[in-house]
Design brief:
Blueprint: E1 6-8, E2 20-25, E3 34-39, E4 42-49, E5 52-57, E6 71-73, E7 76-78, E8 85-87, E9 105-111, E10 114-118, H1 132-135
Parallel strand pairs: 1-3
Antiparallel strand pairs: 2-10, 3-4, 4-5, 5-9, 6-7, 7-8, 9-10
The structure holds FE2/S2 (inorganic) cluster.
């Protein structure tokens, strides 16, 4: 599902940490698919699954692929570049239990047909540059997929 459409939020551009931000109408999101919305300078992937909306950072913590273009299996979004997956509720990554493998998730609320997201107060931890597990990752996966650079 390449090319998820990016939608801008409709509220003011002041700091939104901890604030609810309007990102569209329920009907703007397609069932079973990921859509990208913008909150300030961040892209967020919103999935509509069984009529329920869930939101997670769009940039994969591994190498930045769009998670909105991934598929969802058993409540996890599977990145389409190298197959890492992230729980849509907690953001927990599948590869190890390391904190930096988590993706940021967002709270979603509906008011009528309007959809709002709220940024979590704390960002997920950053990946340490000298993490041997990450650097030992199979080098064949470290190439940028065609058409993404
Ligand atoms: S960029 Fe997502 S698994 Fe590699």
């Amino acid at each position: 599902m390449a090319g998820a459409r990016v939608r801008s939020s409709t509220s003011s551009s002041t700091s939104r940490l901890g604030s609810w931000v309007h990102v569209g109408k329920v009907g703007d999101f397609r069932e079973g698919r990921g859509s990208v919305v913008r909150l300030d300078d961040k892209k967020v992937a919103v999935f509509k699954l069984g009529g329920r909306l869930q939101a997670i950072q769009d940039a994969c913590p591994h190498m930045g692929a769009s998670l909105a273009d991934g598929r969802v299996e058993n409540g996890r979004v599977v990145c389409h570049w190298h197959g890492w997956s992230f729980d849509l509720e907690s953001g927990q990554g599948s590869l190890t239990s390391k904190n930096w493998l988590c993706a940021r998730t967002y709270e979603v609320k509906l008011e009528g047909r309007d959809v709002y997201l709220r940024c979590p107060a704390e960002p997920p931890p950053r990946r340490p540059e000298d993490d041997e597990e990450w650097t030992a990752w199979d080098p064949k996966f470290l190439k940028t997929p065609k058409g993404t650079d």
